[in-house]
Amino acid sequence: MALLIVFGYFVLVVLSVQRAGGDRIHVMQRWFGVPAMEPVFADLWHITSGWDAARAGLKPEEANPYDQFNRAFTYPRIWLWPALVGATSRITTTVALAMIIGFIATAFYSVGRLTWREGVIFGLLFIGPPVVLALERCNVDLLVFMLVALAGLLAARAGRGERISAVLLLFTASIAKLHPVGCAACLLRSNLKGSVMAVVSFFGLIGAFFLFTLTDILRISRILPQVSWFSYGGRIAYEYLVRAVEGALGRHLPEWLPAAGYLVLLGGLMAAAWCLWSKSPAVRWPKFGGTEQHLFLAGAGIFLLSFAALKSFEYRYSFLLLCLPLLFSMLRRGRKSAIISRMMLILLGLLFYDSLAYGILSDGLRRSRVVNWSYTLEAWSSSWLLFVFTLILFFGLVRTWLIDVSSLAQPRTTPPPDL
Q: Rounded to two decimals, what is the model's pTM?
């Protein structure tokens, strides 16, 4: 069912573009809620044009004349390594198609076998504007998604080789983009020693890489755009609130005060999720270690980190597809678990499709403050609620893991024999 929905969607896109005389950007923005841009696969073109610049002897921090917008390189230097073996921008389309096919195959394999209702939900989320934006831009998050999903799948297996491969895959994803650091919890196992070794090894590798490339990381952080348009993150709504308070007071607040307030807000939510909500039987499992649990920890980890610390373009919502296997299993568990799962699926639907609804409405009501404010409030409230629910399930899994490893660590006693 999901494949039929995805296939029908892309057929509809092609027919709509043809009917509009080839105006792909207008059709995608107006009717599909996707902020398309030229050229197609624009994000990948930024990387492959960097290959051309590297072969020409230019440094990453310099303006790139081969780039459409003359931008400096905004990715870690590892993405320039293909230039060392002669890769150029002429293979951009080939690389893009390989990444898109790999992403689709990995996403469908990760969710496993679905009922027809689950297939409809997965298919509708898969053709949502955030995922289609990642495909249209061919953002490198497609490759990161593949690495993270494979790491989650391997981490759920018992073999030593699979565990080592999971650590290496997650490390590769984290040096390609920094946000997969939030996936470390997917390396946890029911064995305490194995969990500690996996997590410590991962952070040891990441720490060494960060120290080695600190200058490059700081350079990227200075030039990487942090915009609020078609983006998500707790800082977006919070910064609007701070500006409103400053406007009401008629003066600027000290720089440390908003930052401290934001940390207190996040800390309060995390403490509440751990101490109150994660104790509920609805977010407890009899045993830790299922494949859907590792995939959830991977996808939720990226979302929680990117929401709390960054302003991320909405294509990063794609990682929440890894949470679907656990949400589908919760639908089958019981009433309380099903309520939480349904709430999260509703929030996912709102966040995946609110840009589409806004794009259609704003064309006719472009000057309507009601439309603008309702869209903004819905996006903020939905994203914060999804953050809270994801945090509850995340901590519920961690609490289940702690209970699991503590029970295994207790010595087993045998009753005395009858005399």
A: 0.90
